[in-house]
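Project channel, design review

CF: Before we commit to the Psychrobacter namhaensis constructs, I'd like one complete example in the thread so the newer folks can see what an input/output pair looks like. Taking YgfZ/GcvT domain-containing protein.
RD: sounds good, go ahead.
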Amino acid sequence: MTQASQTPALPQFAQLTIQGEDAEKFLQGQLTCDVTKLGLSYQAAAIGNLKGRIEFGIWIKKQAEKHFDVVISADCADALKAHLNKYGAFSKFDTSAPTAIYPCVLADEPTFSHKDDHNTFEDTQAWMECSIATGNYWIVAATQSEFQPQELRLHQRGGMDYDKGCYLGQEVIARIYFKSAPKAFLHYVQGSGEVPAAGDKLDKIQVVNAMEKENGFIALVVARPEQLAESALTILDLPAALQIDVARPK
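CF: and here is what came back for YgfZ/GcvT domain-containing protein:
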């Protein structure tokens, strides 16, 4: 196997614009976050399935009144557009075709840009490294329906609202939050050897995202703490807000 085949492809992203009279109301019934509180900065969020797992991991911002921009992994963009058209068939809004948008780091934060000068290998690498270090996971086609939002600490990043009312998967997600807690959840780790692909399992530890780094790799993984303790992976520190217990505060 060549090194090129061992290294996962660089992530690519697409933006869809959703605008119209019913855009906000429709999205409020789909997304895990409170759409009424969105602003001009990208907010990580998700659209779940009926089992309470993330079908589409997205970033969303309110560009203008009744106008929302959604960024998603490019290999999920057509499926998201089909989903929006299906569930929004009787709502008044239009969804654009997916267009390319580029990952980059601005002011030490992972974000996205339409500028062609950010369409570089270096920008994407910097975005990946910053995203993995800060828990800014990205869902790709291989990991759709794999993770529950709390497992990925989405609620600790402002991407979930437990008081806004119903949305897809809300009953399951709320039940986990109020009555139990995920036993496996997001960690930032370093390992040796080949770079695993998104969705791969290292024994019982599931990879969310990974990239090559210093004769090995860094990754975001979902695992039980005891599984990590028994592995050869080194646990690194996520930001302080993502180091607290994933369970609901008592």
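RD: helpful, thanks. The radius of gyration is 18 Å.
CF: The chain has one domain: 6-183.
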